[in-house]
Design goal:
Oligomer: single chain
Strand content: under 5%
Structural class: mainly alpha
Number of strands: 0
CATH superfamily: Fido-like domain
Order of helices and strands: HHHHHHHHHHHH
Helix content: 55-70%
CATH topology: Fic-like fold
Number of helices: 12
Distance between the termini: 41 Å
Shape: globular
Largest sheet: none
Radius of gyration: 18 Å
């Protein structure tokens, strides 16, 4: 599948420094792919990647429960059913954390075939992220007339419905093209991630969905076919300060801002691969939970 939109995204590699950053990220992900531990134990490592990814995404969402000694251990226990939510499930922070965990876990079930129906993928990720946070009438669908999103207000007001729908259509087009031969996976992942944050198509949960979708695109597009890299950790470096700054630069609309966001995403993919390497090392050494 080729389109002017996909070509325009591919052309972003011509911005200064972007091509080199993308190449470095691709080399890091290739090295991870051939890690010895992933010859037979990829599912175990990929499951741990989702645990660590959910913990990092929750941090970026400001959903770290007070008094939790280790968010990764907490998320791991939540995933395996060892945490009794009880009354904690009514706490807003815990409910957001649960949504992040569900959305990240849901990425396992999304492959290139599912991405041919991008609106359904976004709906499923949003449902996982916000099923306990919004009225059911607002879950799994974009904003409608009279609805607004108050997330990421530092980027300015969320675009109106006409602009939102047009830009969301472009996101759908890019996501559907992920499996195409020659599709620039990292650039597509970066652009759809940023567009969801800037456009804020949902009343709530845009950041969680954006990061989950990026994880899916990187895997389904072949940059990280094992799903062991942890892109959320890449963005959470320095408590996410660079992540937020780079999103703000992208939102400015200028080429320098777009370049800054793309290089941030490429560098985040390198860090994601490094974290995946640590997971693979821990799997090989039999010390996964203490890594």
């Amino acid at each position: 599948m080729s389109s002017p939109t996909l070509t325009a995204v591919a052309d972003l590699a011509r911005l200064p420094g972007v091509a080199d950053s993308v190449t470095a990220a691709r080399e890091a992900c290739t090295a991870l792919r051939w890690h010895e531990a992933l010859r037979r134990r990829t599912p175990e490592a990929a499951a741990e990647s989702r645990v660590r990814g959910a913990a990092a995404s929750a941090l970026l969402e400001g959903a770290e429960p007070a008094g939790s000694a280790g968010s990764v251990d907490l998320v791991r226990d939540l995933v395996r059913g060892a945490v009794d939510w009880g009354e904690r499930g009514q706490d807003p922070v815990w409910r957001v954390l649960a949504g992040v965990v569900r959305a990240t876990a849901a990425t396992e079930r999304v492959g290139s075939t599912q991405l041919r129906s991008p609106a359904q993928v976004l709906a499923s990720l949003h449902t996982a992220a916000t099923g306990d946070l919004l009225p059911m009438s607002q879950v799994g669908r974009p904003r409608r007339a009279g609805e607004d999103s108050l997330e990421w207000t530092e980027l300015g007001p969320a675009p109106g419905l006409e602009e939102m729908r047009a830009r969301l259509d472009l996101v759908h087009e890019l996501v559907a093209a992920v499996a195409s031969a020659g599709a620039p996976t990292l650039l597509v992942a970066a652009v759809v991630h940023a567009e969801l944050l800037v456009v804020r198509p949902f009343v709530l949960g845009n950041g969680v969905v954006a990061r989950a979708l990026e994880r899916v695109v990187l895997r389904a597009g072949g940059l990280d076919p094992t799903g062991v890299a942890v892109p959320e950790v890449g963005h959470a470096d320095r408590a996410g300060s660079e992540y937020r700054g780079a999103v703000g630069a992208y939102a400015s609309g200028g080429p320098d801002g777009v370049r800054l966001w793309l290089t941030h995403c490429a560098e985040a993919a390198e860090r994601a691969a490094a974290e995946g390497g640590r997971i693979a090392d821990a799997v090989r050494a039999g010390r996964l939970t203490s890594a």
